[in-house]
Amino acid sequence: MDLRPLAEPIAGSRRPPTPVKIVIAGGFGVGKTTTVSAISEILPLTTEALITSVGAQVDPIGAVPAKTTTTVALDFGCITIDDDVKLYLFGTPGQDRFGFMWHDLIHGALGALVIVDTRRLDDSFPAVDYFEKAGVPFVIGINVFDGNLAHDVADVRWALAIGDEVPLITFDARFKLSVRDALLAVLRNTIDKNRTRAATRQ
Amino acid sequence: MSRADDPRYAGIDPDVSPLRPYLLTSGRTQPVDQTLEVEAQVLTSQRGAAAHNSLTFERRDIVELCQVTMSVAEVAAILGLHIGVARVLVADLAELGYVIVRRPGTRLTQDIDMIERVIRGLEAIS
């Protein structure tokens, strides 16, 4: 890399933009990376998070909590909103055992999109459960891979045991505008939840 | 002999650095500012640019890379660092005044103006 620019003052640089983010969660293979790729300005990047977690199960022999170190991939992309705001999308592993990482990631998120594959609904339980408990406004997005829903939307709501307050949408992770609409649903839901909270407080 | 062929490295993923992450962070595993967000924006300051030659390894790489503003997550991805390591290093550099860090606002989920701004930005995508 040419280092000469370093001799120049960096005074001319623009002030860094304000970052905001939306978290994209869901089980393995539901289309998180596809979703980020469809709309990101940059090729989605992957970084690794090194994780040490104390296993929930106690080692039956030593009675010592099993401590495991795992590396998980974190896919992300970004969208320039305007001169001073940049939106980041973080796709996070949806498995239960990575829950602690969500905590780290969702801090400051505008909301979350929990992607569901109706053929493997079980995989979405941990994410749904987590966001409900964490109080992060989220929307369930059914990724319609091939234009067909394996189940009726109402059945999915029932199967996931989510109330009417959680919006449930269908989208196609391969298409930019479909992903855009899913993200808009996430943001509008966050605004709605704010209004609801403000109303109940009065 | 490459590491892939070296019997001493049998069973070890050749793409994984043999250096444990804590060696890069001088033994610390917690950033100075533990809450540094992965989307926080990083830009090298004049002081950082001036100190470039005195820095080593990853710190030097970061100061070099962030002549263009980017997120902590991008720093990690581009330099092939674990996200936790990138956070520690960026927080250290910020502490020294070598990089400027712009963090997201607080209580963003309640910042209706900001959310509406993002909505307008997304609606403009076609």
Rounded average pLDDT of chain A:
79
Tell me which CATH architecture of chain A applies here.
3-Layer(aba) Sandwich
Reading off the top of the CATH hierarchy, the class of chain A is best stated as Alpha Beta
The first-to-last residue Cα distance of chain A is: 58 Å
Number of strands of chain A: 7
Domain module count of chain B = 1
Task: Kindly describe this structure.
The complex is a heterodimer of chains A (202) and B (126). In chain A, α1 crosses α5. In chain A, α4 links the parallel β6 and β7. Chain A is an alpha/beta fold. The N terminus of chain A is likely disordered. Chain B is mainly alpha-helical. Helix content of chain B is 41%, strand content 8%. Chain B has a 3-stranded antiparallel β-sheet with strand order 2-1-3. Chain B is globular. In chain B, 40% of the residues are buried. The model of chain B has no long low-confidence stretch (mean pLDDT 82). The interface between A and B is large, with 58 and 53 residues.
Short description:
Chain A is α/β, with parallel strands linked by helices and 202 residues long. Chain A is built from 5 helices and 7 strands; from the N terminus they run βαβββαβαβαβα.
Topology:
The complex is a heterodimer of chains A (202) and B (126).
Chain A: E1 18-26, H1 32-39, E2 45-58, E3 65-82, E4 85-91, H2 99-106, E5 112-116, H3 125-134, E6 138-143, H4 153-160, E7 168-171, H5 176-201
Parallel strand pairs in A: 1-4, 1-5, 5-6, 6-7
Antiparallel strand pairs in A: 2-3, 3-4
Chain B: H1 21-24, E1 41-44, H2 46-51, H3 57-65, E2 70-71, H4 72-79, H5 83-95, E3 99-102, H6 112-123
Antiparallel strand pairs in B: 1-2, 1-3
Helix pairs in contact in B: 4-5
